Hints:
Blueprint: H1 10-20, H2 22-33, H3 38-45, H4 49-77, H5 79-99, H6 103-131, H7 137-166, E1 172-174, E2 177-178, H8 179-185, H9 188-197, H10 205-210, H11 214-225, H12 227-241, E3 254-255, E4 260-261, H13 263-277, H14 280-293, H15 298-326, H16 328-351, E5 354-356, E6 361-363, H17 367-384, H18 386-396, H19 403-455
Antiparallel strand pairs: 1-2, 3-4, 5-6
Amino acid sequence: MSIQDQNENMLYIVLVSCAATIGGFLFGFDSGVINGTYDGLAAAFDTSELSGGFNIASMLLGCAVGALFAGVLADILGRKVLLIIASVFFIISAWGSGIAGSSFEFVIFRILGGLAVGAASVMAPAYISEIAPARIRGRLTSIQQIAIITGLFSAFVSNYFLAKYAGLSTDILWWEFEAWRWMFWIELVPAIIFFFVLFLIPESPRFLVMNHQEEKAKTILEKLYGTSVAETLVVEIQDSIENDAKRPSIVDLIDKTKGRVRPIVWVGIGLAVFQQLVGINVVFYYGAVLWQAVGFSESDALLINIISGSVSIAACLITIKVIDKVGRKPLLSIGSFGMTISLALMVFAFMNSEFDSEANKLVMGELGTLALISANVYVFFFNLSWGPVMWVMLGEMFPNQIRGSGLAVSGLAQWGANFAIIMLFPLMLAAIGLAGAYAFYTVCALISMVFVIKYVQETKGRALEDMQG
């Protein structure tokens, strides 16, 4: 849909997009808050390395399920309704994770939160892509990643000050509850705000047209783009789906003439999986554990997380500025190259450090500075590229008829890979050390560059109705 109209209500479009990305903020906060609670969970529930890893990774099971069914449910209930349901789950999870008295209870509440994160992760960018003009769609959808990183950053800051005020994350803070529990309860504030804000945004016009509610779609399009083009846009959306008049289904992902999964679906899955195989969430989920393993104190490790969060936000701001000029594919390629080099430098630093078996830590000396700088360079390149651009691509690369299902399958793959990486990291750390683990991520970053060059097609400036599967 190519939109050039003087009556375009840009302020309203931006505000609606920002409202949807509060879900991304919660996605980031929910992912980042666990970073500072590892010691508290271990002390409260007496967990082993494996069960401790599952406590952290359990949310990702919910994420995978939430992402898988989000597309289908969004095609039935609507994008807006699904986001409202997700906001309720965020609230329940934030409260329950903090009050949990056992690992089992904690895992249940984290899975509920994961359902919300999974749904929000695929629906927020899809919703934005369906209301945004093509010429700035990349920038607006990139706001999702800004929101995710801001959520991570906010969780890191919150964790740092709560732990600092209490003494340690395992110490009592207020009302006889430990600091780590309050780290989860802080999330209640943005979760409740998200719930109420969602009632102020419109439903996706494309969803309404798909469900034969053309008049409602026209009314919303008039408010978004002006009266003079609203009717034309409704016709364009109708034309784009007239060959697939039936309700969207996951079966549509199969090319009926060839009897196999459409190539575009495999590309979406590849993008989703490689975003996780480069190991970014090891930094975000285990950052405090990682930096303590190389000799930093808990307080310093939490402070390093804040620095990494700041670097992430700076990188995302650059992406928003250039994504609709440079394009998606070049940014992905640049990001893969930058991550490969910076990860390789981290491996070098870890390999050439001595291990203190008594303290169970690496003694790095000056190599610690190299590792710290390389880690932040790595975070910068990820958030310049794969962080925001993968979600932009998934939100716009699929044809209308399979957008919900394509996002669902890609989201399932993304969260499945995320779960595997997070669950395996403690085991990899024990078996092959930091150098071995990060060598694996380095190889994946290199392969991701080849994947982008060979299989990914540019979507910059293309109307959603023109996307081919």
